Amino acid sequence: MALYNKTIWELRTLLDKKEISPSELLSSVMERISSVDGKIKAYVTVLEEYARRQIKNGVPQGILSGIPIALKDNMCVKGERTTCSSKILSNFYPPYDATITKKLIGAGAVICGKTNLDEFAMGSSTENSAFHTTRNPWDIERAPGGSSGGSAASVSADECIAALGSDTGGSIRQPASFCGIVGLKPTYGAVSRYGLVAFASSLDQIGPMTKDVRDCAIMMNVISAYDPSDSTSVPFERPDYTAGLTGDMKGMKVGVPKEYFIKGLDAEVEANVRLAIKKLEERGAELIEISLPHTDYAISTYYILATAEASSNLARYDGVKYGYRTEKAEDLIDMYSKTRAEGFGAEVKRRIMLGTYALSSGYYDAYYRKAQKVRTLIKQDFDNAFKTVDVIATPTAPTTAFKIGEKASDPLQMYLSDIFTISANLGGVPALSMPCGFDGKSLPVGFQIIGKHFDEVNVLRTAYAAEQALGIKDRKPEI
Fold first, then answer.
1. Who contacts 299 (Cβ-Cβ below 8 Å, separation ≥6)?
2. The one catalytic residue among 72, 185, 279, 473
3. How many CA atoms lie within 13 A of 334 on its CB side?
């Protein structure tokens, strides 16, 4: 019996009835990885020995007991290589577990591998990895999205049961859209980032990437918790994230922002998203047209703030404390310069230079301070919208998956693929992508649901209602 293609909640029943064992389940997933990862290249490191050691030592009893879960390779697992898909960290073995790693292991999860990403999570196609390009399981000539492309592809190709990604400007939702899975960026502060290698600290969030909405809610129940080790972690009473999975939308008001249905949005994407919104209305939701008037400024605001924070965060990689060090240096300054020139890829260097310029003397007020003010306006757009609606429905990306190499030489076109996801990061609100249909090339279309701060329950409620109404979640790619 193939087990790798099942959901967490389906496997939970089989494991609890002792119809299967954790070892059998792990073997099924490992055989799947051996069978398809040569084509997909979702993983940087497969942790079969680590996973089998977990099972041999006895996994704790919990909702994820015995379930193989993959982690994006920018999250620390004690003693296991954590590269951020960068040459500069290619030999880094963290001496501690990230908080989410401890949460997963504490709930019984088996960590089966570390997935590929754009270097330091900077990119939208996973082409910026220093190791290899991950392929989209629906069409291996196309990108899986990014930066969590390895996690999205591994879930879509059934190379794990679920995965975690990180989302700074859409890095969970855009690849979830391209690969036809469910991906949730939680509210800023809802999930600890202790042990996540930082890219842009005021924007980064860890979230689940799963085969359906119920699994996404189950994963949130495990990873969402207050963590004193993360100064941005918010102490509040976490709800049961599965509580809203009723399929009913009566009493819910769904906002449809006119700024997200614009020129440049692919016609087939728009048709599928509007069908999903119609299905929510049929389930009892009230649809209301709304405006988020500062949406046009989100891309430029993001690429000032995110690059400024990246410039600061990545200053630590100097060849002294840890990571790659050049062997050709003549003196200390030469060592710094050559280590960073040889260790970082082109996109990371581009963003460090942009951010350093934005923070430099004489330009700070003109760029960084102004961008912070615009960020506040974008957050206020969401605050005003949520005075009249419960959730907001939009496309996740303007197109379906593009071909590998199609946008590699044009960074601006690549940045625009995140045009519908970036605002949620700037506002700090939760947002989820789920499949809502397919285009004429049989590529998945992503449907985004945005919620109020810390209201993931209603985001998941809306997604579950759409999933039930659309009836497409069991469609799988042929690899």
1. 415, 416, 418, 419, 422
2. 72
3. 5
58: left (phi over 0), alpha (psi -120 to 50) or beta: left
Residues 138/147, Cβ–Cβ less than 8 Å: no
CB 40 within 8 A of CB 153: yes
The β-bridge relationship of strands 110-115 and 68-72 is: parallel
The Cα-based distances of 357 to 276, 310, 371, 425 in angstroms read 43, 12, 14, 22
CB distance 348 to 363 below 8 Å: no
Answer yes or no: 147 catalytic.
yes
Cα end-to-end span (Å), the chain:
19
Give the distance from CA 476 to its chain's centroid.
20
> Which pLDDT tens digits describe the chain residue by residue (479 residues)?
789 999 999 999 999 999 999 999 999 999 999 999 999 999 999 999 999 999 999 999 999 999 999 999 999 999 999 999 999 999 999 999 999 999 999 999 999 999 999 999 999 999 999 999 999 999 999 999 999 999 999 999 999 999 999 999 999 999 999 999 999 999 999 999 999 999 999 999 999 999 999 999 999 999 999 999 999 999 999 999 999 999 999 999 999 999 999 888 999 999 999 999 999 999 999 999 999 999 999 999 999 999 999 999 999 999 998 889 999 999 999 999 999 999 999 999 999 999 999 999 889 889 999 999 999 999 999 999 999 999 999 999 999 999 999 988 887 778 888 899 999 999 999 999 999 999 999 999 999 999 999 999 999 999 999 999 999 999 999 99
The C-alpha atoms of residue 48 and residue 53 are separated, in whole angstroms, by 8
Where does 314-455 have alpha helices with state H? 332-343, 346-359, 370-385, 411-416, 422-427
Indicate which residue of 28, 148, 171, 417 is catalytic: 171
The answer to whether the peptide bond before residue 90 is cis (omega within 30 degrees of 0) is: no
Long-range contacts: 34-38, Cβ < 8 Å, 24+? 36/137, 36/157, 36/159, 36/479, 37/157, 37/159
171 is catalytic: yes
Question: CB-based burial of residue 323 (10 Å sphere; 0-12 exposed, 13-18 middle, 19+ buried)?
Answer: buried
Task: Considering only the C-alpha atoms of the chain, give the largest distance between any 2 of them, rounded to a whole number of Å.
Answer: 70
Helix (H, G, I), strand (E, B) or coil at 424: helix
- Of 28, 85, 124, 147, which is the active-site residue? 147
Q: How far apart are CA 421 and CA 426, in angstroms?
A: 9
